[in-house]
Input
Amino acid sequence: MRDTWREVPPTAGLPLQWRDFDPRRKRPPLEEALAEFLDVPSVQLECSGTAALVIALTTLKRHSIRRSVIMPAYTCPLVALAVLHCGLKPLLCDLEPGTFEFHAPALARLFGSDVLAVIATHLGGRFCDLVPVMSAARRCGAFVIEDVAQSLGASRRGVKAGTMGDIGVFSLAAGKGLTLYEGGALVTKDSALRDALQKTSAALAPDNASWEWRRSLQLIGYGLFYRPSMLRFAYGTPLRRALRKGRMIEAIGDDFASTIPLHRVGAFRRNVGARAAARLPAFLDALAMQAAMRRRILQTIPGITVIGDADYTRGTWPFFMVVMPTSAARDCALDQLWTAGVGVTRLFMHALPDYPYLQAHFGANDVPNARDFASRMLTISNSPWLLEKDFHRICSVIADAAAPSLRNSR
Output
C-alpha cells in the first residue's frame, strides 16, 4: 500500500511556496491580514498557541482572585500544561458520549465561585457548541477562552471561531492552516482586555534572538520538507521509529516538556506568514470541497461515525475525525494504516489524566466518555496530497476493521 517516496501529512496544512520567502513581495502585516480574515479590530501575535494561552490566563489571573480553569478531558496536553504553568488549577470536564463536546451535566457541576475561565476547544476544525458554555460561564462570572488551535477559519452563522467568547487563542504551528512553524495569536473584542493582554505580553515575552534564529531556520526547513516527496524524512521515518520502539506518546507528538518558551516573533517569520496568508481563504475552500466528497464516502461505511459540522456552522477540514465502533476496531485499522504513509493517525494518545506527566495533577479523574473517545477515534488527513486510490484503500481497511464489531452486535 505504501509508496516509499511519498508521505502524506496527518493534517492538511497550507504549504509554503518559495515566493513566501521573497522579501520583494510586499504584503500587509500578518496581524492586519488575520484581523481582516477574522473580522476583528486587531490580532496580537505570540510565539506559539501555548504562549498565547499563557498570556491570556496570566492576564485574567492578575485581575481576579479565582484560580480554577475548566477544560475538556480530551484535548491537547499543552492546554493543561499552560494552566499549570500559570499556577492555576485545571478542572477536567468529561465529554458527551462519542464526541468532543462538553458533557453538559458534568460542566454544570464544575462551575463555582473559584472558576476563573472555561476553555472551549474547537477540535479538528469543528466548531464546538459555545451556547451552553457561554451561558453557564456568564451565570458564574467566569471568562470563556476559545481554543482555536486546529480550527482557524471555522465559523457559526458567519462569525469566526475565536471571536464569540472573551478571548480566542490560535495556533500557527507546523501543519496548521497557516504556519510560522511555531506561532500563535490572541483575539478579543473587548478594548480594555485587549490592552491588558498587550501589557502582559510585553512583560512576559521579550525579544530573544536565539529562539528566533532557531524558529526561522525551522520555518525554512518546513518550507523545504512539507511536501510528499520530502516529508518522510521529517515526519514519516521518526514516526515509524518511535512506533517500532513502542514509544506511542512520542509517535503521536504528545511528549511535551513542562517549560513553555515566551518570546517575540521576528520580522522574517511575520513577513513569510503575511505572504502565505493571502492564499489561506482559497486553500480552506478547496479543503472544504474535497472534504464534502470524501466525507460522503466515509459515511457509507457501516458502524463508524464521522464527526461533522453542527447546524449553522462551517468548519475547516484539516483531517477527518472517525469514531470506530470499538477500540479493538480502531487499533486493527491503525495496525495497517499508521505506518503506511497515508496520513492516518491518532489525534491525542490519551484523555488528559492518563498521561504519565500529568497524572500527578489530576489523579484518577472519572471521565469515562473522554477515555472512550480517545480509545476509539482515529484521524484521516484531508491533505490534497492524499491520492484517491489511497483514500479508497483507507476506507476499505476501516470497513474491514469495523465489520467484526457489527457482526458481534447482531
